[in-house]
Amino acid sequence: MSEEGPNTKGAPLLVAAHMREIEAQVRVCKLCKLSRTRTNAVPGEGDYRAEVMFIGEGPGYHEDRQARPFVGNAGDFLNELLEIAGLSRPRVFITNVVKCRPPNNRDPEPDEIGACSGYLDRQIALINPRIIVTLGRFSMVRFFPGERISQIHGMARVIDGRMCVAMYHPAAGLHQASLADIIRSDFRKLPLFIEQARKMLAPAVQTDEGQPAADDTEVKSLVTGEPLKTSDTAEAEVLVQAQAPEAAQKRGKREKSESDYKQLNFFDL
Question: In what helix (H) or strand (E) does residue 26 lie, and over which residues does it extend?
Fold first, then answer.
């Protein structure tokens, strides 16, 4: 398919219809002042069944003209990064926390992000990606409140049943050359995150007795925070937020309160 439009092949008709409805609403949206200065709103584009969803900050000059996300210099760099990660634009979904360009590419303001949040919530719910990759600090803060991008870039956290990965915005690598290789290195971890997400977040395998089968190694790591090694050469780190699996409790693990699971240790993929 062409990279200019959404990939709806295989998407349920109802999902595709609702996604197109959101896109139509975004294009005529007047919920915030950005509607008065935009040329075009930019709903997002890609596969409505995408396993990986990228969320940037807001459209720039070229995006505002073409009504497509990441088509300027930052878009060219993102295409390179996707190739590094073994991904392609038609098979992912790309959008932003605000759908209209802030004047002079200034930072989006809280009321503007809030006005667009409903559209983004619905897109996430309909696409239901296994992994969300945040690009830049304004999308990062939605999933990693209180964190600093310089401290958690290239790391991930399981939130509401999906893996969220924090990345620098591609534009950061264009404005600060020293970050470009860091961003490339972070994107090389994405295949590891995808593989781990498929293992951790896949539906449980049922045993003959009808109970979910549990992997002892993964259960031990999630409950205790001990390192889980699946590759001696892996560089990726994941910050996992999870509740103790029921299987672990059945194996005699001590019960913990909800507060014990707010923050578990890093473990290597």
Answer: helix 13-27
**Beta bridge partners of residue 156, listed in sequence order:** 165, 238
| Confidence bin at 1 (pLDDT 50/70/90) | very low
Tell me phi and psi for residue 30, to 5 degrees.
-135, 35
* CA–CA dist 111, 127 (Å, integer): 25
Tokens of 38: 């935009």
pLDDT (tens digit, 9 = 90+) per residue, 231-246? 333 344 455 433 333 3
Q: Please state at what angle helix 13-27 crosses helix 110-127, rounded to 10 degrees.
A: 160
CB distance 166 to 155 below 8 Å = yes
CA atoms within 13 A of residue 102's CA, in its CB half-sphere:
15
Question: Rounded distance, CA 42 to CA 70, Å?
Answer: 10
H/E stretch holding 216 reads helix 216-224
Q: What angle do CA 154, 158, 159 make, to 5 degrees?
A: 115
